[in-house]
C-alpha cells in the first residue's frame, strides 16, 4: 500500500494556495504509507526560475559548505549563469541559467557523491525518510505556490526504506512518476534498459517505470503513448501518476486493485488514492468525481 | 459517546417515533464513537451522519432495526457486516461497501468502488450509480441492484443471490459462478468461465420485477437478459481420473 495525492491547478488564482491544498490532501493519505515520502512541485517561486535549470539533490548535507559548492560549480559553468545553491528542508537545490545536461555534468564533477532526484526548468523534487507530514513541514510545503504538485507516501515492498527509494522518480526534465503497487518484471526490464545504456540510481521497481517512460518519450512517444507502451511491457499492480512541465497523467493496471479517484472542476484536476484526500478541496461538491477505468490512460494539460 | 447536535437524548437511546433523528457530526465525533453508539443494546430509531468526508468504516456492524442516513461520501467498508437495519449513503462509497451484509438494506445514491457487497449473505444493496470491479464477488445470498454499470470480474464465484445491472457489465462477468442469478439490461463485455446466458422464464421475470421495485427502479424486467452457471465446473471430470 502507498498513498498518492496530485493536483493540477487550472485556475492561476489558486496557484498561491498550491502547497496548502496539496498538504491538506497529503495528510489524508499518510496511513497508506507512513515510512517515507516525497513531493514534486512545479513553478514554485523561490525554488525554480524561468530560464534556469534546477537540480534537486537528495539530502541537505553535500559534504561541503554551500558557498564552497557555489564556487566550485561557478568554476565549471559560464560566468553569466549565476549559479545558486540553497537548502530546502532535507533537499539541496542547484539552479543555473544553463541547459540541464551541462548543470548535471558540473554537479557530478563538483559533488560526485550526490544523488540527483529532480531536474528541469519547472520542477523541484523533495524526498526523505520519516513521517510524511514532518517531511512536508520540513520542506515548507504549506507555503509553496505553484501550478502543479505531486505527493507520495510510501509503504515499501520491493526495495529498502531509503530516501533514494522514495517517490517521485524524476529522471528526465520536468518528468515525475509516483506509483502505488509493485512491478513484478522490473528486473528483466531493468536489464534491457541497462543494455541500451540507461543508468539507474536505485534498486527501486518504480525507477524502472520512470526510466522506461523517459526512454519512450525520448524515442518520440507523447505521454499517453508512453503509458500505453508501459502497459504492454510491465507486469504487476500499479496506479501511476506522471507529471510533466504542463501535464498530468493517471493510469491503472487492467486488474485495477490499486485505488484511484479523480475530482475535476474548472479550477483544478485532483487525483488521490482515496476520496478523503479530496474532501477538503475548494467546491468539491461541484466537482466531477470518478474512478479511472482499468487500463485507460487519462491526461490533462495546463 | 458521540457528540449530539439538536437533541438532548443520549445517542444510544432510541428516538421516539416521530422524533427528530439522532445527529452525529463526524467533524466532532470519531467514527468509533458512532459505531459504538450504533452497537449499544436495543438501539433503534433514525440516525443522521454528517461530515463523512470519505472516512472509512462508517456504520459497520449494525445489528439492529436502525435507519441511518449518511449525508455525504464514505470511504472503505461502509455498512460492512450489516444486519437488520437500513443505511442510506447520499454520496459515493469507497472499496468494500456492505461487505458481508447479512440482512437489511444499504442504499448508495452515487457510485460505489470495487468489491461492493462482496461475500454478502442476505439483504439488499442498491447502488443508484455505477459500481466498480468485483461487484458481488463471492456473493452468498445478497441481492444487489445497480442503476448504472459494473466493472470487471463482478459476481466472481457468486454462490447465491441475485445481481441486477441496469447498465453494462465489464469483462469476465460471473466467472466460476455457482447458483447466483445475474440480470443485465445493457451489454456484457465478456462472460467469465462457466457463465452463460440463460432463458428468461416467468419466475425470473417475476423475481426481477420484485427486485427492481424494491430498488425503486423503473426499468421493465423484459428489457433484461439472464446469466448463470453452465454447471460444467461443478463436478470432478471423469477424464481426469487417471491423472493420479
Kindly list the characteristics that best describe this protein.
heterodimer, A: 302 residues, Glutamine Phosphoribosylpyrophosphate, subunit 1, domain 1, Alpha-Beta Plaits, 2 domains, five-stranded antiparallel β-sheet, B: 244 residues, mainly beta, Pectate Lyase C-like, eleven-stranded mixed β-sheet, 11 strands, 9% helix, elongated
Helix content bin of chain B: under 10%
End-to-end distance of chain B: 61 Å
Rg result of chain B: 19 Å
The rough form of chain B would be described as: elongated
**Fourth-tier CATH superfamily name of the largest domain in chain A:** Aminohydrolase, N-terminal nucleophile (Ntn) domain
- Number of alpha- plus pi-helical segments of chain B: 2
Radius of gyration of chain A: 18 Å
How many β-strand stretches of chain B? 11
- Name the CATH superfamily classification of chain B: Glutamate synthase, alpha subunit, C-terminal domain
Number of domains of chain B: 1
Amino acid at each position: 500500500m502507498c498513498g498518492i495525492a496530485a493536483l493540477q491547478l487550472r485556475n492561476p488564482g489558486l496557484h498561491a494556495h498550491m502547497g496548502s491544498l496539496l498538504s491538506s490532501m497529503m495528510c489524508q493519505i499518510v496511513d497508506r504509507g507512513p515510512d517515507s515520502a516525497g513531493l514534486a512541485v512545479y513553478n514554485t517561486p523561490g525554488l525554480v526560475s524561468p530560464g534556469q535549470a534546477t537540480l534537486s539533490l537528495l539530502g541537505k548535507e553535500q559534504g561541503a559548505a554551500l558557498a564552497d559548492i557555489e564556487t566550485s560549480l561557478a568554476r565549471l559553468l559560464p560566468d553569466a549563469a549565476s549559479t545558486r545553491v540553497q537548502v530546502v528542508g532535507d533537499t539541496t537545490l542547484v539552479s543555473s541559467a544553463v541547459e540541464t545536461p551541462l548543470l548535471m555534468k558540473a554537479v557530478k564533477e563538483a559533488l560526485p557523491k550526490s544523488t540527483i532526484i529532480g531536474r528541469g526548468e519547472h520542477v523541484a523534487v523533495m524526498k526523505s525518510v520519516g513521517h510524511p507530514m514532518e517531511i512536508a513541514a520540513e520542506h515548507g510545503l504549506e507555503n509553496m505556490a505553484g501550478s502543479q504538485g505531486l505527493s507520495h507516501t510510501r509503504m515499501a515492498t520491493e526495495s529498502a526504506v531509503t530516501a533514494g527509494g522514495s517517490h517521485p522518480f524524476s529522471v528526465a526534465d520536468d518528468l515525475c512518476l509516483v506509483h502505488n503497487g509493485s512491478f513484478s518484471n522490473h528486473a528483466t526490464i531493468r536489464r534491457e534498459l541497462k543494455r541500451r545504456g540507461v543508468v539507474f540510481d536505485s534498486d527501486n521497481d518504480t525507477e524502472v517505470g520512470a526510466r522506461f517512460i523517459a526512454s519512450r518519450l525520448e524515442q518520440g512517444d507523447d505521454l499517453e503513448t508512453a503509458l500505453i507502451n508501459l502497459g504492454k511491457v510491465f507486469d504487476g499492480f500499479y496506479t501511476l501518476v506522471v507529471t510533466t512541465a504542463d501535464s498530468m497523467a493517471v493510469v491503472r493496471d487492467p486488474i485495477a486493485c490499486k485505488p484511484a479517484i479523480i475530482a475535476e472542476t474548472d479550477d483544478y484536476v485532483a487525483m488521490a488514492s482515496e476520496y478523503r484526500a479530496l474532501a477538503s478541496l475548494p467546491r468539491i461538491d461541484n466537482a466531477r468525481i470518478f474512478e479511472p477505468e482499468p487500463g485507460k490512460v487519462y491526461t490533462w494539460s495546463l | 459517546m458521540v457528540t449530539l447536535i439538536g437533541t438532548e437524548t443520549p445517542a444510544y437511546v432510541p428516538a421516539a417515533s416521530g422524533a427528530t433523528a439522532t445527529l452525529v457530526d463526524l467533524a466532532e465525533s470519531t467514527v468509533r464513537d458512532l459505531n459504538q453508539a450504533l452497537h449499544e443494546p436495543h438501539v433503534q430509531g433514525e440516525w443522521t451522519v454528517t461530515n463523512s468526508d470519505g472516512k472509512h468504516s462508517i456504520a459497520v456492524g449494525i445489528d439492529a432495526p436502525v435507519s441511518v442516513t449518511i449525508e455525504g461520501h464514505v470511504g472503505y467498508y461502509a455498512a460492512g457486516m450489516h444486519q437488520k437495519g437500513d443505511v442510506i449513503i447520499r454520496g459515493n462509497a469507497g472499496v468494500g461497501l456492505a461487505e458481508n451484509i447479512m440482512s437489511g438494506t444499504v442504499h448508495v445514491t452515487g457510485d460505489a468502488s470495487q468489491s461492493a457487497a462482496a461475500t454478502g449473505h442476505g439483504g439488499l444493496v442498491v447502488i443508484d450509480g455505477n459500481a466498480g470491479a468485483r461487484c458481488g464477488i463471492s456473493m452468498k445470498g445478497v441481492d444487489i441492484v445497480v442503476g448504472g454499470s459494473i466493472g470487471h470480474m463482478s459476481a466472481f464465484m457468486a454462490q447465491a443471490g441475485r445481481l441486477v445491472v441496469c447498465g453494462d457489465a465489464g469483462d469476465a462477468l460471473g466467472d466460476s459462478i455457482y447458483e447466483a442469478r445475474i440480470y443485465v439490461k445493457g451489454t456484457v463485455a465478456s462472460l467469465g468461465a462457466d457463465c452463460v446466458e440463460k432463458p428468461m422464464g416467468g419466475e425470473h421475470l417475476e423475481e426481477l420485477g420484485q427486485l427492481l421495485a424494491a430498488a425503486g427502479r423503473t426499468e421493465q424486467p423484459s428489457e433484461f437478459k439472464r446469466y448463470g452457471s453452465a454447471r460444467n465446473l461443478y463436478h470432478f471430470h471423469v477424464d481426469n481420473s487417471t491423472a493420479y
